[in-house]
Specification:
Helices cover 76% and strands 0% of the residues. With 90 residues, it is mostly helical. The chain is flat and about 30 Å long.
Amino acid sequence: VALLGRIAELESDWKRRARYLYTMATIQRVDLKDLEAALESLEQTLDCDPSLLRAFETQSTILTEQQDWKRLERAHRKMIVRVRGQGEEA
């Protein structure tokens, strides 16, 4: 996980950085069972690339399982702000 974090820090392409962070979050959630670290990595992922919706779905799933409704509401509000004005014309 530390190596992926370092690679993500050095990556200049935001979308590629988001994929590294998402992979890091997946490892933290599935293998390490560290949900708080996974949630933090997912936040960073969405800050880099809000169009990576599977990161938001994973974040929502974790918060729903924890029944942390306040953080779930905050996550939805943050996501709305992130994607505001970025809709596809087609």
